[in-house]
């Protein structure tokens, strides 16, 4: 298929400054929510040295991203199908070398994405936590960035730190904020207000609040069962909230959507982190 004929897709990096805020779980459930809205969704586990998505969803994957970098397999050989038809590109587990991609590995990844075309509407990139070069690399390659945080002071501080790095070093100004594991809507908006105030005052950027996920016992219950809470408990409060967020994402006009996977690839080429 000619590049000009390829369908428009949205590439969204889901990131967090701090580990343990539920970023990967949020990514998995966002993917399912978007799939329910008749989208073809590919989740790329970009925490390349510590595989997580496949564990959370209990996926049996024979190969992972390391087989691609070794030249043993192609991208299409790695992708497995998850719940409700989502596609997952698994990371490797316990391979420290992949936590910082070198130039050859980045070019290999670009080459493989360039040859992959499976009619996807969304590419969700689940980055690792923190502010490593890999995190910056994938955030800057994506068209949109969702920052997941919680009400914990350390989570908010680290979320701000990540946005500060992406702004000061890479001039990124557009961030969506999702607040996880809060008591109620008021606490979620309060967390966002505090982050937004700091970002506007010290970085002169405005943040976009896309919603919150409430504290809900269904979430850890689903994690223990290695299931997505939206799949296992579709009527719980957390599921209702994630569907509101996916609807907001899916229906929003996005000025950053420029075209096909080629634009993600262009971002990868430019993101020299």
Radius of gyration: 17 Å
Content of β-strand: 15-25%
Can you tell me the CATH class? Alpha Beta
Note the gap between the termini: 31 Å
Helix proportion of residues, in percent?
40-55%
Chain oligomer state = single chain
Query: How is the largest sheet built, in terms of strand order?
Result: 3-4-2-5-1-6-7-8
The profile of the biggest β sheet is:
8 strands, mixed
Architecture per CATH nomenclature, i.e. the level-2 architecture: 3-Layer(aba) Sandwich
Succession of helices and strands: EHEHHHEEHEHEHEHEHHHH
What does this structure look like?
The chain has helices at residues 23-36, 53-56, 65-69, 75-78, 103-115, 133-141, 153-170, 185-203, 218-224, 229-232, 237-251, 261-270; strands at 10-15, 41-46, 80-81, 87-89, 122-127, 144-149, 176-182, 208-214. It has a single domain (9-251), classed as P-loop containing nucleotide triphosphate hydrolases (Rossmann fold), CATH 3.40.50. It has twelve helices and eight strands. It is globular and about 50 Å long. Strands 3-4-2-5-1-6-7-8 form an eight-stranded mixed sheet, with helices on both faces. By secondary structure, it is α/β, with parallel strands linked by helices. Residues 1-6 have low confidence and may be disordered. 44% of the residues are buried. The longest helix is centred in the C-terminal third of the chain and has 19 residues, at 185-203. The two termini are 31 Å apart. Helices cover 45% and strands 16% of the residues.
């Amino acid at each position: 298929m000619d590049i000009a004929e390829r369908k428009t897709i949205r590439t969204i990096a889901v990131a967090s400054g701090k580990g343990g805020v539920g970023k990967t779980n949020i990514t998995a459930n966002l993917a399912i929510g978007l799939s329910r809205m008749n989208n073809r969704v590919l989740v790329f586990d970009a925490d390349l040295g510590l595989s997580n998505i496949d564990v959370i969803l209990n996926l049996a994957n024979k190969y992972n991203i390391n087989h691609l970098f070794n030249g043993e397999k192609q991208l299409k050989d790695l992708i497995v199908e998850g719940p409700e038809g989502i596609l997952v590109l698994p990371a490797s587990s316990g391979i420290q070398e992949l936590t910082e991609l070198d130039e050859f590995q980045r070019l290999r990844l670009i080459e493989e994405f360039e040859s992959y075309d499976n009619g996807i509407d969304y590419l969700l990139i689940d980055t690792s936590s923190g502010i490593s070069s890999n995190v910056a690399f994938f955030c800057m390659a994506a068209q949109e960035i969702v920052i997941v945080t919680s009400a914990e002071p350390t989570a908010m501080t680290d979320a701000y730190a990540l946005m500060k790095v992406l702004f000061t070093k890479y001039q990124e100004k557009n961030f969506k904020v999702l607040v996880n594991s809060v008591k109620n809507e008021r606490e979620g908006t309060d967390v966002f207000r505090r982050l937004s105030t700091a970002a506007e005052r010290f970085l002169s950027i405005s943040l976009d609040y896309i919603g919150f996920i409430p504290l809900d016992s269904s979430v850890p219950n689903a994690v223990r069962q290695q299931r997505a809470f939206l799949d296992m408990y579709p009527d719980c409060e957390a599921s209702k909230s994630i569907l509101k967020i996916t609807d907001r994402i899916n229906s929003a006009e996005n000025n950053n959507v420029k075209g096909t996977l080629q634009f993600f690839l262009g971002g990868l080429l430019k993101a020299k982190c």
